């Protein structure tokens, strides 16, 4: 059985989303996918459509690029939720010029109050070189802070590298 809150971290194309989906698929509960990506171009529209098809009808998908906290508080307690991903959510908040501290607090409070089990996918962005511009450095720092606060709240934290999971906190079900 999955814990109340799980965090799955990894780099781009590390296998973190596939690992998180497999964790959720191993449960018998109804599955809800909270998608945070926004489709600004044809390539992204095709990528989203492909993922929807791959997941199939066993998932209920809710698109929430900005309002994840509101969605989390309204979910049924018998569901398992995959939030993919916190990195896109953070990017969306920054692009919308929202107050990051306020939005992060709302998200963390909603994760704590959510009646369902939640698996959060997020990118680990702190393993690379220091970005060359101020916006990228601000994003990297904000993502690192967000990951740390979710990890502190989570019962399970897993880092996925090359498709291989490494448990950082807790135990895999």
Question: What are the SSEs and their pairings?
Answer:
Layout: E1 5-10, H1 16-25, E2 31-35, H2 42-55, E3 59-63, H3 68-72, E4 80-84, H4 86-95, H5 100-113, E5 117-123, H6 134-153, E6 156-161, E7 164-169
Helix pairs in contact: 4-6, 5-6
Specify Rg, calculated over alpha carbons: 15 Å
Rough outline: globular
Order of helices and strands: EHEHEHEHHEHEE
CATH architecture: 3-Layer(aba) Sandwich
| Physical arrangement of strands within the biggest beta sheet | 3-2-4-5-1-6-7
How much beta, percentage-wise?
15-25%
CATH topology: Rossmann fold
Secondary-structure content class:
alpha/beta
Stretches where pLDDT is under 50 for at least 5 consecutive residues are: none
Which range best describes the helical content: under 10%, 10-25%, 25-40%, 40-55%, 55-70% or over 70%? 40-55%
- Count of folded domains: 1
**Count of helical stretches:** 6
| CATH homologous superfamily classification | P-loop containing nucleotide triphosphate hydrolases
Largest sheet entry: 7 strands, mixed
Mean pLDDT: 95
Assembly classification: single chain
Taking the alpha carbons of the first and last residues, their distance comes to 5 Å
Task: Look at the structure and give the CATH class.
Answer: Alpha Beta
Query: What's the total number of strands?
Result: 7
């Amino acid at each position: 059985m999955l814990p109340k809150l799980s965090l799955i971290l990894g780099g781009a194309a590390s296998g973190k989303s596939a690992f998180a989906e497999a964790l959720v698929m191993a449960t018998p509960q109804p599955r809800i996918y909270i998608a945070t990506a926004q489709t600004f171009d044809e390539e992204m529209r095709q990528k989203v459509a492909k993922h929807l098809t791959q997941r199939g009808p066993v998932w209920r998908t809710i698109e929430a690029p900005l309002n994840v906290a509101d969605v989390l508080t309204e979910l049924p307690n018998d569901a398992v939720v995959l939030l993919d991903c916190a990195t896109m959510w953070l990017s969306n908040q920054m692009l919308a010029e929202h107050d990051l501290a306020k939005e992060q607090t709302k998200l963390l409070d909603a994760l704590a109050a959510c009646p369902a089990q939640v698996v959060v996918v997020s990118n680990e962005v702190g393993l690379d070189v220091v970005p060359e511009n101020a916006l990228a450095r601000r994003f990297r720092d904000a993502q690192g802070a967000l990951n740390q606060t979710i990890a502190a709240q989570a019962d399970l934290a897993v880092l996925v590298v090359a498709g291989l999971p490494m448990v950082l906190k807790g135990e895999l079900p």
